[in-house]
Amino acid sequence: MDPMTDQEIRASFVNCSKGEASRLSLPAGLAGLPWADLDFLGWRDPGAPDRGYLVAPREQGPVGVTLRAPQNVRRSFTKTTVCSLCLTGHPGSGVALLAARRAGAAGRQGNTVGVHVCADLACPLYLRGRKQSALTSRYEESLSVEEKLARLDGNLQAFLDRVLQSRPSAVR
């Protein structure tokens, strides 16, 4: 991912107002982030732990989405869960259900899209071995790092497509 300025990050958000985007907390040390190892920029707001943000490159330019964690959710600290974007397994609360309001009129009507994702939004760093899950036993995949990153991109783009979709999908 190419480095981004705070103005570029704030301008990328599609599911909140410009005012909300101007007030959101950006990740600390923006200039020092490992941009070459990031396929998307994801962070949680230290001042509001139920909030997260994700900015990803797309053909038409970067797309940012605000995310919310449900409040008062009981979590099992003995269960292992898997991120639906990068498929990294985490113990306990290492994976969080985060919901993104849909862009446009659908979001203003309260429609959201949920995703189970690494709670720290560091999927690219897990896949590249720059961060390690706290699992004591891990499953081994035969995919190369490049293939895992391609799968991450496909899963992420599908999630963003659902956020950008103007109408909720019919239940099948």
Could you name the key traits of this structure?
single chain, 172 residues, alpha+beta, three-stranded antiparallel beta sheet, 5 helices, globular
What does this protein look like?
It contains 5 helices and 7 strands, in the order ααββββββαβαα. The strands form 3 sheets. The protein has a 3-stranded antiparallel β-sheet. It has a two-stranded antiparallel ribbon with strand order 4-5. It has one domain. It has 172 residues and is of the alpha+beta class.
Helices, strands, pairings?
Elements: H1 6-11, H2 18-23, E1 41-45, E2 48-56, E3 63-68, E4 80-82, E5 89-91, E6 95-101, H3 104-108, E7 112-118, H4 123-127, H5 145-164
Q: Quick one: how many beta strands?
A: 7
State the low-pLDDT regions, or none.
none
Average pLDDT score: 90
Tell me the β content. 15-25%
Q: Number of folding domains?
A: 1
Strand order within the widest sheet? 1-2-3
What's this entry about, in short?
The chain is an alpha+beta fold and 172 residues long. The chain has helices at residues 6-11, 18-23, 104-108, 123-127, 145-164, and strands spanning 41-45, 48-56, 63-68, 80-82, 89-91, 95-101, 112-118.
